[in-house]
Amino acid sequence: MPAMMHTAKKLLFLLPMLALVFVAGCGSPVTSTKDGPPRGTLADIAALTRAIQALGPEVDPEEAARAARISCEYTHVLALQYQITDPPLIHNTKVNMGIKPRGLCKDWADDIEARLLQENFQTLDLHRAIANASNLRIEHSTTIVSRRGDDMFQGIVVDPWRNGGVLHWTKVLEDDKYVWVPRREVFAMKRARAQRQGKFAKQY
Questions:
Q1: Beta-strand pair 156-159/181-182
Q2: What does DSSP say about strands 124-131 and 181-182: parallel, antiparallel, or unpaired?
Q3: Is the pTM of this model over 0.90?
Q4: CA distance linking residue 188 with residue 204, whole number of Å
Q5: C-alpha dist (Å) from residue 6 to 1, 11, 19, 91
Q6: 158 Ramachandran zone, left/alpha/beta (phi>0; psi -120 to 50)
Q7: pLDDT of 120-168, one tens digit each?
Q8: Lowest pLDDT segment from 9-13, 95-99, 139-143, 177-181
Q9: Radius of gyration (Cα) for the chain, nearest Å?
Q10: Which of 31, 106, 133, 177 has its CA 20 to 30 Å from the CA of residue 87?
Q11: What span, in angstroms and rounded, lies between the C-alpha atoms of 116 and 125?
Q12: Gap between the Cα atoms of 95 and 93, Å rounded
């Protein structure tokens, strides 16, 4: 009987995570080990450098290279800090249950943005965006890098969460998985909705 109860508890623990994976389909599995997801390679950094440099002739090549290197390398640092060993939606569930410390998409976006802001780029801007805020799918946050003065729609999504600690990047308007909305607009929408419902909306 104790063995059966233990098995039942394990099933109850796993069912919510499996349901999230099948229903939401937002994050792709990644091959992780006890050392975390694989690091970004020099080829990965070089490809992202070229993409950032291509945002415009005003982009400093050194800043493009630095932003690409930090985005790739800091993704791995965070993956180790967050103790990433599972696909993103399963990791989310563990964070929400208090089993893992951090690693929700908002955590990735907050921490990547904070690290990039330390560089004080002169030819690049950083933006925050949210997808799925007004539909039934799981809301997703990201950081976007653009040329200085451009809006986020001319920029590049840097998204470490999507592939479970392996950096995914793409042009905002070419992202075939998410329709990105500026975070300030999402917060304004949530404040208005909370006010209509008579809820306290200070967090937005």
A1: unpaired
A2: antiparallel
A3: no
A4: 7
A5: 9, 9, 20, 22
A6: beta
A7: 999 999 999 999 988 777 899 999 999 999 999 999 999 999 999 999 9
A8: 9-13
A9: 19
A10: 133
A11: 10
A12: 5
- CB contact at 8 A, 76 and 113: no
Q: Which amino acid is at 187?
A: F
Give the whole-angstrom CA distance, residue 20 versus residue 23.
Answer: 5
Per-residue pLDDT reduced to its tens digit, 26-76? 445 455 556 789 999 999 999 999 999 999 999 999 999 999 999 999 999
The DSSP line for the chain is -HHHHHHHHHHHHHHHHHHHHHHH--S-----BTTBSPPPPHHHHHHHHHHHHTT-TTS-HHHHHHHHHHHHHHHHHHHHHHT--S-HHHHHHHHHTTSSS--SHHHHHHHHHHHHHTT--SSEEEEEEEESTTSSSPPEEEEEEEETT--GGGSEEEESTTTTSS-EEEEGGG-SS---EEHHHHHHHHHHHHHHTT---TT-
- Cβ 103 vs Cβ 91: under 8 Å: yes
And the tokens for 175?
A: 């992202």
